[in-house]
Amino acid sequence: MKAKFKTLLQSIVVTSIATLVQTHGLKAVPNYHLSDDAAEDDNLTLSKSSNKLNVKMLLHLNSDDTYLLAAHRSHSSHRSHSSHSSHSSGSSHYSHTSHSSHSSASSHYSSTTTTVKTYSLGQRTISSGVSGEDVEDLAKLLVKYRYLDESSVQKDYLGDVCCDIHITKAIKAFQEDAKLKTDGIAGSVTISKLQHWFPELGDRVLKKGMYGSDVAELIKVLIAQDLLSDSDIEDEQLFDEHVEKAVKSFQKDHNIPATGIIDNKTLSILIKL
How far apart are the first and last CA of the chain? Predict the structure, then answer.
């Protein structure tokens, strides 16, 4: 096997061990040694030895996106011979009994073929470093509501979207707007809230680039007050440059700093009118 492919297998093994640590704790994973023998071109071998037990694990990647993990354990014991001599007076007698037993190394092989488990969004908690289809679905929602730029969504070497610093930051921004604990971790509450995200006007500060049902309400108010035209609207839930321009115009007319941001002060005056 070429060096590049072998490196890939090693990455899979490391990822698997990391998963064991995350799920069962560090004690669940013994100290294995990754063999880098150039002669082992088709397999990757891990070994662990102790005084009584030798363990070798063999990882083989199949062509159907599954892998074969074979474990080999060998145990040997040797009991040394025992000797006995006796001597009685009056006669000379010597007896020697020798017994030795040696059990040759016994071997046991076991193997299993496993496929990588996939998760639907909401089946598990998503935090930094987690990757999979559910992370990709989460990213799509964050992109939809303009908490995440689509160009910042990255995939790992297996083609899965990973919860990196950009997605974590987007989760925090959403949690802040949704008045949830801002920890950057997408648990069941955060995911459910995002899946059914229908904020009302006044629930959060609005500015250019934001998206949602509250922006749709704002646009209707601006149109009703002839501050915005229907023809300017490309997306009824998007706070774009046309909406920002209308907000700035309104703020100037009412001696409010023309920031183009719908904060509590601007909104309270806008609604009264």
Answer: 74
Q: Parse the chain into domains and list their residue ranges.
A: 3-75+106-114, 133-195, 213-272
Q: What is the CATH number of domain 133-195?
A: 1.10.101.10
Question: 12: helix, coil or strand?
Answer: helix
The residue among 154, 160, 184 whose CA lies nearest residue 171 is 184
Distances (CA, A) of 35 to 80, 97, 114, 126: 34, 46, 22, 33
Q: What are the tens digits of pLDDT across the range 202-227?
A: 999 999 999 999 999 999 999 999 99
42-46, 128-132, 258-262: which range is least confident on average? 42-46
Instruction: Give the count of alpha carbons within 13 A of 42, CB side only.
Output: 3
For 81-131, the pLDDT digits (tens) are: 444 444 444 444 444 444 444 444 444 545 555 455 789 999 999 999 999
CA 156 to CA 19: how far, in whole Å?
Answer: 16
